[in-house]
Amino acid sequence: MADDFVKAVEDGLKLSKRLYFGKDRPVTPPKVPSSMDKSGAVDMLLPKSPMVYAVITDPKIVDNPDIPSYQPYVHGRCDPPSLIPLQMNAVELDVDCYLDTAFVRVSGTWRVHCVMGSKSCDCRIAVPMGDQGSILGVEAEISGKSYHTQLIALGENDGAGKSASVETGSFLKPNIFTLTLPQIDGGSYLSIRLRWSQKLSYRDGEFSVNVPFKFPEYVTPAIKKIPKREKIHLNVNAGTGTEVLCNTSSHHLKQLRRDVGKLGYSYESEVLKWSNIDFDFSYTVSPSHIFGGVLLQSPSLHDVDQREMFCMYLLPGTAKSRKVFKKDVIFIVDISGSMQGKPLEDTKNALAVALSKLDPGDSFNIVAFNGETYLFSTSMELATKEAVERAHQWIGINFIAGGSTNICAPLTKAVEMLTNSRGSIPIIFLVTDGAVEDERQICDAMKSRLTNGGSICPRIYTFGIGSYCNHYFLRMLAMISRGYYGAAYDLDSIEIQMQKLFTRGFSSVLANIAIDTLKDLDEFEMYPSRIPDLSSESPLIVSGRYQGKFPDTLKAKGFLGDLSNFVVELKLQLAKDIPLDRICAKQQIDLLTAQAWFSEDKRLEEKVSKMSVQTGVLCEYTRMIIVETDERNNASESPGTKKGSKKSDHQKILDSEVPKTIMLQNLGIGFGDLTATAENFPPGSEIPKLPEVAEIFVKAASNCCSTLGNKCCCLCCIECCNKLNDQCVIVLTQLCTALACFGCFECCSNLCCCGQDGQ
């Protein structure tokens, strides 16, 4: 899908060369990347900041709405449609950072500068987001019309609004959301507000936020006299009640306020060109030692859950001399047929880096699986230089994609090998791109074995590749074992994301974390239910709900790397200016969805759905809709303005007040695809669908006619027709009529049937 988008933008940039802006132009016409460097072109043309594109199906409408260019007439249509980036007249960025989450709002004004004033086109909004971004909402106002997105429960309002095609709303990539607004007049101004959340990066006690804010040169307005004002507002509330220090900033921010645990900055400037760098900001919170706290907050009146809220955080600090755990590590890697090519090669590279990071005192093993199980060694091997070298050779020989997928056997074997681990932390890394039928049975078996195990049970770190594996099964497996879950929905991010998960598993500084006094609370729930280990690579956030009086003092205890006991007192404070429900929403929804899948509990699914609608965070049990409100109809249609039947006037008023809705296709990742796994479809590929009979005939007729047209000239056709007898003429006429009927059928299907799931 990303390649198709890039090709459409490339075609759109070529079309935009038809536009004439006079001599008063501050920027050069857009340059189309060379097709010789495909990877560079894809990287250059994918949006790296909020963008809006004109969707052009008819190239004849491309022109400056203010100054006609009188370009030569263009024949034909754009199939698929071209995308012309719209020029932006103003932009404002607001970033609010709380704990480990950033909430981003972007407001901007774009103009349909490339379509005749008498014509209209669809406009596609692209929203690139940062690390683990989650779209929260889109609002737009255009010439008396307004649009906004909202979430509804699955099954709600079915049939009330028309269904949309994939292009209307979908994820171009896991971190790029696109939404299409219908039929915007040429020359119109679009006022758009975008909202999303993303995770902060953490390293050595330093938090950092990176927001895509790199605008290409060709979105700068082509008229110098138009003022271009760029605004940035940043608020930091660490929630720790400790001093916060600013480290670096990509833009020249002016400090507005500075309180304990809080920072406020702003930036505003008249610019000639929009920002060509992302917005980066980093700050330090934690001291050199492990510390934490608990934030308490009461629910709002409209909250679907009226229990009290709590959020516990632990920060690993910056101490470099802290002893890390000795590790017993088993890598379980899927080598089924669908892993062939880039997925398996990137997995090999990430595994090679992970092996190089093991200490000589650590032990390891490697298990490859498809329908069978292949062991590097029958027992754990010390991570000596010779053993690691033999492992590289074994990987090169045995990591050959082929066969089916069987997860249970290798996972059971790995747990058995780590059962007797002493003086170390046992870790299993499971990498797969497929779904299997016995996933719930696997979770049941692991839950029974791991919860009844020794003092430190094996941690299972799961990693899912693509959309065909069941990511909620992998998340559930990690939660049961106090491990972590990672994923790469995009093939280009496999190696990077896998290395992050490996590094996180190798850097645990506090294990078997427990807080006993919380269990005495009424109606107590905690997410995740089993607290994972604290890693030096990221803070640990645990949230939940409760009834009753929260303890006055709270302590967290666990094991350090030298297996000594560790206790840290958690500071309690009321979260006055921190939206706990929004900060914890994504984590809670994902974990509860995994539990709902595992338990097949419909009431839990309904609970997740209500949380999703309330917080705006997408889930598997909600759908996003576009609500269109036409304020012009509301203003023009009022009682007594027109003479006629009272019933018809009243009905017109009611119709104008009812907003139109467009239901987007499901934006969730789903619960795996057993068919795609069984057929070994590679990650990122689409399951082939057989075309309809009418489509086959239309394409065949179109290809036939185009081929004949290319082979014949007008004079040859005239001479040939003169020599035809009457019967041949009749047959030829009937053939042309049949082809015309097929063309009419295609046109009618596009006009009348496009609302039915895009078909």
Give a short overview.
The chain is α+β, with helices and mostly antiparallel strands and 759 residues long.
Describe this entry's structure for a reader:
There is one protein chain. The chain is built from 16 helices and 35 strands. With 759 residues, the chain is of the alpha+beta class. The protein has four domains: 2-133 and 175-285, Immunoglobulin-like (Sandwich), CATH 2.60.40; 291-321 and 511-578, no CATH class; 327-506, Rossmann fold; 699-752. The strands form five sheets. Strands 8-35-34-7-6-11-4-3-14-17-16 form an eleven-stranded mixed beta sheet. An eight-stranded mixed beta sheet has the order 29-31-20-19-33-32-28-30. Strands 21, 22, 23, 24, 25, 26 and 27 form a seven-stranded mixed beta sheet that branches. Strand 16 (254-259) and strand 17 (262-270) form a beta hairpin. The longest helix has 27 residues, at 726-752.
